[in-house]
Amino acid sequence: xxxxxxxxxxxxxxxxxxxxxxxxxxxxxxxxxxxxxxxxxxxxxxxxxxxxxxxxxxxxxxxxxxxxxxxxxxxxxxxxxxxxxxxxxxxxxxxxxxxxxxxxxxxxxxxxxxxxxxxxxxxxxxxxxxxxxxxxxxxxxxxxxxxxxxxxxxxxxxxxx
Length: 161
Known about the structure:
The structure is a single chain. The chain is an alpha+beta fold. It folds into two domains: 30-82; 91-157, Nuclear Transport Factor 2, Chain: A, CATH 3.10.450. It has helices at 34-54, 64-82, 91-102, and strands at 106-116, 121-130, 137-144, 150-157. Strand 3 (137-144) and strand 4 (150-157) form a beta hairpin. Helix 1 packs antiparallel against helix 2.
């Protein structure tokens, strides 16, 4: 089977190519939610203004759906603003706090960002294994990404060993 230059070949996009890795991944901050929240609120105000100015005009194309859309977008915009927490703890700092919380020497560990509650408060879920081979203990620690407090710390013997 020959490979001609005209043959179509599959390839990974540049952003997924691990050979072009340039550094650690930076988790995006939840405060970016403010941008769409403000956009939703501006559109909601414009829709409400259109409805108020044109609602009595019988030849207008403006219906009560504009008011309903304004209310809905206003609520979504307010929720986006209320859930736009500024994170002060990144994944590296969460690993440090989790290591302190478990009380044993840490070998392998990983952090995952999750959200808690109605307002989607960012939280780090850190899974930690002890430094022995194979690990004798493991722990799961939840670290608040806003104020760095330990929400929960579960430590147990590693059932896999």
